[in-house]
Amino acid sequence: MAISLLGSGTRRAGRGAHGDAEAMIEVVATEVAARRGRTVARLLAPVVVLVAGLALWSGVVSAFHVPAYLMPEQWTLARTAVDEAGQFVTPVLVTMREAYLGFLLSAVLGVAVAMAMARWTVLEVGVYPYLLLLQTLPIIAVAPLLVVWLGAGTATNTTVATVISFFPVVTNTLTGLKATEANLVDLYRMAGAGRLDELLTLRLPYAMPYLFAGLRIAAGASVIGAIVGEFVAGEGGGAGGLGYVITEDAIQLRTPELFVGVALSCAVAVVLFGGVSFVGNRLLRRWHDSARRRGE
């Protein structure tokens, strides 16, 4: 009888373990399905908005009989983009070079200046007001001076891109460096860590979410700066960028080409923004809530 009871208990335990495994598999399957649904929703939402915007565009043009030189039809823009694709390759590459180099310079200089101001308070007090003044200057008014000093061309356009994207990197990085938890700072100092160790191994990692927030802003600002520089500097003795192409198309009332140039400018900014966001999410998603997807 003891053997019978033991066998019955073993069977019940086996059925219980089997039931627990089935329940766990069901929970995992439900979670996978939910994540898949959220992914599909994230992918479909921009597509739905785009389709709705294009439908509204087409409806406005048809209903109000808008002239083609004011707002061309979508198919006209698509045909223009395909037929004249070769003419836009060089301007896109020129603007990418100027904007991306300006972004890189602003990132390196911005982080360096922010770290210096976080290390020496007197430097922050003395320099930060002038950085704020630099940010408030109308860049379109300063660009002609840069043309006089640097000449028309890549140097001026890259400098404008650097200047306009520099402040977001500095201010966001400095905010992050100063936002480090006081308890962690005290713990570091109790352990005998020096100021430089504290800055590099505690404050800088803690400021990474702020830094990448500033870099995302700078990504779009650098493209704006490069195009503004091209508005003023023109070709610069060589190949003109998208800003120069947009200006020429506007003067000649070539509206389809103008729309294509603006769309390509947005694409240049989106590529840079996407690259910065990708790197930031990869670095932060394991430990910071800002980079985690909802539901994780």
Structure, described:
Helix 3 packs across helix 9. By secondary structure, this protein is mostly helical. The protein has two domains: 1-66; 74-291, Orthogonal Bundle (MetI-like fold), CATH 1.10.3720. The two termini are 51 Å apart. The chain is flat, with a radius of gyration of 28 Å. The model has no long low-confidence stretch (mean pLDDT 83). The chain has helices spanning 2-64, 74-83, 85-119, 121-136, 139-150, 154-178, 182-190, 195-206, 208-233, 242-251, 255-284. It is built from eleven helices and no strands.
Mean pLDDT score: 83
Radius of gyration, in angstroms, nearest whole number: 28 Å
Tally of DSSP helical segments: 11
Helix content: over 70%
User: What is the CATH C-level name of the largest domain?
Assistant: Mainly Alpha
Give the terminus-to-terminus CA distance: 51 Å
Derived structural class: mainly alpha
So what's the overall shape? Answer: flat
